[in-house]
Every structure is written in structure tokens, then in C-alpha cells.
Amino acid sequence: MNDSIVFGQYIYRNSFMHKLDARVKLISLVLMMIGVFLIPKDHFILLGIAFLIPILAILFSKISLFKYLKSLKQIAFVMLFSFVFQLIGNHNGELLLKLPIQFTVVNIAIVVLALIIYFIVRKYLPFKFLIFVLLLIGATYLFRYPIYGHIIHSFDFLIYQEGVIHGLFLIGRVFVIILASTSLTLTTKPTDLTNALEWLLQPLEWIKIKTSIFAMMISIALRSIPTLFNETNRILKAQASRGADFNESSLKEQIGQMVSLLVPMFVISIKKAEDLADAMEARGYIPGEKRTRLVKMTFKVSDYMVLGAILLLFVLLILGKCGVYAL
Amino acid sequence: MKIEFKDVTFQYYSEEKPVFEHLSFTIEQGTTTAILGHNGSGKSTIAKLIVGLLVPNAGQILIDDVELTEQTIDEIRKRMGIIFQNPDNQFVGVTVRDDIAFGLENHQVPREEMIQQIEKYATLVDMKDYLDKSPEKLSGGQKQRVAIAGALAMETELIIFDESTSMLDPKGTKEINQMMRSLKENFQKSIITITHQLEEAIFADRVMVLNEGKIVLDGTPQVVLKEKDILEASGLKLIDGLDVLNRLEKDDFDHKSSIMEALWELIFKM
Question: I need a surface site. Which of A166, A170, A194, B201 has the fewest CB within 10 A?
Fold first, then answer.
């Protein structure tokens, strides 16, 4: 059996952030998400204040910054494109830069060739993203000078002040939210998160929605991930021992192999689900019925303090938004 | 807990033939009963019928003279525990502690009491050091011990072992069998063990052998073990030495009765 399977991103440390009640962390994240989108457009001071919260969370989590940056990497492309869209689309404010762009056959060929080479050797490159950005900048630079041949099309690439500012603000917003949600998932066990979610959704019970069933579903799904993972490994090994090569086969073969993996996984999952349902029923589980809980969540002084601080900031923001005072 | 089957007929709707027809027997309170049979003899179906996971097509199942119905099942289930075959598929919790707690939470046991019960029964099955471990880190035998602790913690009157050792390695099998024996000696519980291993049945007060939906043998292990032909016809593997013993039984020699008695005793001590 594989011992190294860790589901979710949780990393164990003995830190302030880890000891903080999961409910406090969850509520804070929700408030932050709402708050960050309520910040008036291009108000960098407020964004800076919002940015302080995940920074503090990172400092108090005893987890290296690298882990946080890793989660940013996944969304870096999206952030880059929204920035570029802002640059192209927003034509307000002062004109900052005028880039004449001229397409010629040779120019296009060089850029396309560079991109193709990039996508082929990408696997072996360090700092992929950085190289990609450099490539884009290089391409823009190249398009300014018709190297050779007939100009097919030419236009002026205009960058305005507001485009830059708004693009940066947009990135800042996403940055803050990603950092905040990463610090939640890195410091909270999935089970604690489920419990917190169930607690948070309690009001829904008043309108007869059985939130406990959903919480049970989530926790059973979480519990099944490592088991199914082991099962998948077992099937993969069984097929590899019979000559299946998952690394060096054509796309068509790979699809066939996926089917021969998915079908047994499907059968196993259904069998497991059936057995588990029997076991749960035999042990007296009645969906939606009242249950007592072994896990007891208690708010500590530090929990109240953190929640209080976040709430205070949120209320101040709302009041400002409503025009009680100028932001 | 007294269990009574009256003329029970059961058929899986995907199959053409019923598993059994007009099956009747009674299991007395506080006894240990072994139900033996080869795969497909319908022994596991009996377990599922007792805990109400399956409903008979005809006939009645009475638990302490109360009929098992949709209305009574929830109350009756609180008084019985079952340990299934596959150790992985019956582990509900994320940790050992969670899993033992699962049944208690369902029965709305207060939290303080729950903590005490978990400590007590985890110690009893020797899993106290593993309370915060997740199931992937445990062996099959350990997982089954957790399941036993879960059933014991609910303080049920009846515990059913439904082929609980068939997916375990020899070490795990031995552990669980020893646990069953100690349960029989130390607790005033009814125990039903369902198995296809004769070795696991000889400690019981009563052995029932099932073949093709019929009870072909019923009695104390001493009586049942002597019916070598019927046991073999029922697809069961004989215990080592039983064959020799049965052959000796037919012969005539000096001090036969005392020698045979000593030999039988040896078999039951295994």
C-alpha cells in the first residue's frame, strides 16, 4: 500500500493558523471574497489592506512561501490573459505607449516557429511561464520591424493608462483571493473543513434542507479517494504486467487503455458503494436523522479575535460603500 | 437475543432460483452459533436477513418474539452488530476513532459517553495506539478489529461475523478467531459466526451446516464433526486429522473409547 497519498493540499504544522478553528477560517475566506469584490475600482490602498490578511496568514502558518506560489502558478495564465485583455480593450485615460505592429510573412513564420519549438521542448524547460512571457514580448518586438517581404496587415497597438491600472488591479484582486483560499486549504484538514461547512450550512436545516446528508456525502467521498487511488494503482500494475504500456503508445491505444481502466474502476466503485451502504445501514445510519457528534468544535479566544478583526474590516468596508464616509 | 426464522423464503430478483425455501430454525439467546456452508449456500443471505438489509419474500423473522418489519427494524438494529467480509468496504470513518464513533453517533450517544466507550473498546481490541490512524495505514486484521470495537461499543446483544476472516491473511484470521473466542467467554452476548472453515466453527455451542438452501446438519460441534460424508457433500474442507479420526471410529481396537475421547479432545483444542 502507498503511504504517501495525501489528499487535498493539507500540510501538517504546529502553527497559529493550523490551530485556528476551521469555521473561523471558512467565514473569513467568504467575507474576504465578498469584500475584495466590493472594493471600489482601482482603489489600491484598500486592496493593499486586503492583501495584508493573506500575508499575515502566510506568516503565521509556518509553511514556506514556495507552496503558496505553486498554487498561484496554476492560475498564472488566466491572470496574464485578463491583464492583456485589459491592455487591449481599455481605451480610457492618457495614451502611454504606441506600438506600430506590422505583419509580414517572415515575421509570422518566425513567431509561429518559435511557439512550436516552445511547445515541443516545454517539458524540459525550467521557468516555463517566464519563458513564455519573454516569448510574447519578443514576438511583439519582432512585429514592430518588417524584416523582409510584403506587409500583409499593420495596425497600432495602443496602451492607455487606465488599461494598465485596471489590469493590475484585476490581477491584484485574484492574487489576494487565491492566496487566501490557499492558506485555508494548506492549513485545514479536509475533515475539519467538512465539519465547518456543515456547521455553516446549519441555517438551511430550518427550511428543511438536510445539510447533514451532504456533509456525510462529502466526508465519505474524501474517505474513498485514497482507497480508490490504491485500487487504480493496482489495476494499472495488473495491466502493465500483461504488457500494456501507458507511456509510449499512440493516442488511439491510450483511449483503449483508459476504457480498460475505467470499466473495472466503475465496477469496483459500485461494489464498494453497495457494501458501504450496507455497513452504514446495519450500524444504524438513517439519512437525515438526528445524530450526536464526536467532534466538538469550540471557539477559543484567538478565534474570536481573528473573526472580530475580519468582521470589523468587512463592516468598515460596507459602511464606506454605503457612503457613510468617503473611502 | 432469540432469533426465529419461520418458513422463510428468499430469492434475489436477478436470479431464477430462490436461495432457500421454507427455512425454519431458532437461535436461543446467549448462545454461539456457527452457520457453515460453501460459497453460494445462502449463509450470508441469512445474516443480511437478520439485520434487515434484505426482506424475505415469504415467512417471518422474529427477534425476541417481535417480527422484523419496516417499523421495528430501526429499534431492533440498535441491538445487533455485524462485521462484514471486506475490511475496506465497511470502514466509514476517516480515522479509527471516527469509525468506532460512527455507530454511537447514529444511536445518539452523548459525546462524553462516546469518548469513554471508544477508549474502553479500542483498548479491548488492542487498537488504542491506532486511534488517529487512517484506514490505509492498517492491515486487514486491524480493520476488522476496529469493526469489532465499533460493534462492541454500541453494546449490542448480538454480534454477527459474516465471513469476517475470509479476506484476511493467516495472521489476521488467527487474531479475529481468538477475539471471537474471548468474546464468547467474557461477554454475555449472542454470537453468530458465518463461515466456510470448519476450524472457525468448532468453538461454537451449535453448528448449522447449510447446503443448497437447506439445513443438512444441526447440533453441537461434537455431533456435526462426526458426519464426515455430509460435511464433504456440503463442499466443506475437513479439519486436519478429522479424516483419520473418522476412520478409526469404524475400526475396533483395545481401549477404543478412551483413546477416541482423548483424540476428539485434541481436535477441539485446536
Answer: A170
- In whole angstroms, give the CA distance from residue A116 to residue B124: 66
ipTM over 0.85: yes
Whether residue A39 contacts residue A46, with contact meaning beta carbons closer than 8 Å, is answered with: yes
* B166, B196 Cβ separation under 8 angstroms: yes
Shared domain check, A303 and A169: yes
* pLDDT of A4 above 70: no
Clarify whether residues B264 and B211 are in a common domain.
no
- How many domains is chain B partitioned into structurally? 2
Q: B140 and B27: one domain?
A: yes
| Reported confidence tier of residue B122, pLDDT bands at 50, 70, 90 | very high
Residue A82 grid cell? 485578463
Cell of A163: 488599461
Q: Is B38 on the interface with A (CB under 8 A)?
A: no
Q: Find the domain containing B203 and state its range.
A: 3-237
Mean pLDDT along residues A215-220: 87
Mutate to test the interface with A, among B53, B96, B105, B115 (most CBs of A within 10 A): B105
Location of C-alpha cell 455451542: B205
How confident is the model over A173-194, as pLDDT tens digits?
988 999 999 899 889 888 888 8
In this structure, the answer to whether residues B214 and B265 fall within a common structural domain is: no
Query: What residues of A are in the B interface, CB distance below 8 Å?
Result: 1-3, 5, 191, 219-220, 222-223, 226-227, 230, 271-272, 275-276, 278-286, 289-294, 296
Question: Do residues A38 and A318 lie in contact, with contact meaning Cβ atoms separated by under 8 Å?
Answer: yes
Q: Which domain does A247 fall in, by range?
A: 211-287
Same structural domain, B152 and B265: no
